[in-house]
């Protein structure tokens, strides 16, 4: 990956629907060269997909992080977490805790149910919940 690839990624993070011709003008290459680069970045897994960012979270939604301590490898939970629509991302992390899960639910009752599901998963020792009070920086692709 070179500097032009990094420029393309930055432009696409700002507007994932930017036309190839516009991208080409911005980085100073032919449209076909930019398309070849984008195809390669997708094939190599650098660009894993394109998504819709819906803007502000639904009014009244409860945003929270679940911080999980495991007794065994947290990778075993991947499938179960992917199946939960309230889980928007789950990251294996370093430090005293093992897993960071970001959730959005319709209510605190729904959050409690999600937390209980996570607590019952194999190998989970402890779940700490941190409610989101404010979102100050929220860039696409930042999670």
Shape estimate? elongated
Rg of Cα set: 19 Å
Bin the helical content. 25-40%
Mean pLDDT, to the nearest integer, reads 88
Separate helix tally? 5
Which spans of ≥5 residues are poorly predicted at pLDDT below 50?
A: none
- Record the strand order, biggest sheet: 2-3-1-4
Condensed summary:
The protein is an alpha+beta fold and 143 residues long. Helices cover 35% and strands 21% of the residues. A four-stranded antiparallel beta sheet has the order 2-3-1-4.
Characterization of this structure:
The protein is elongated, with a radius of gyration of 19 Å. Strand 2 and strand 3 (99-105) form a beta hairpin. The protein is an alpha+beta fold and 143 residues long. Helices cover 35% and strands 21% of the residues.
List keywords for this structure.
single chain; 143 residues; alpha+beta; four-stranded antiparallel sheet; elongated
Give the topology.
Layout: H1 3-14, H2 20-27, H3 31-43, E1 62-70, H4 78-82, E2 87-92, E3 99-105, H5 108-119, E4 124-131
Antiparallel strand pairs: 1-3, 1-4, 2-3
């Amino acid at each position: 990956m070179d500097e032009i690839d990094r420029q393309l990624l930055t432009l696409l993070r700002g507007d994932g629907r930017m036309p190839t011709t516009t991208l080409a003008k911005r980085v100073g290459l032919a449209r076909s060269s930019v398309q070849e680069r984008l195809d390669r970045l997708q094939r190599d897994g650098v660009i894993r997909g394109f998504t819709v960012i819906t803007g502000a979270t639904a009014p009244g939604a409860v945003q929270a992080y679940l911080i999980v301590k495991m007794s065994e490898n947290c990778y075993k939970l991947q499938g179960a977490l992917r199946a939960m629509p309230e889980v928007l991302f789950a990251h294996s992390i370093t430090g005293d805790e093992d897993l960071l899960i970001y959730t959005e639910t319709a209510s605190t009752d729904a959050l409690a149910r999600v937390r209980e599901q996570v607590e019952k998963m194999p190998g989970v020792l402890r779940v700490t919940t941190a409610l989101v009070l404010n979102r100050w920086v929220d860039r696409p692709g930042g999670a």
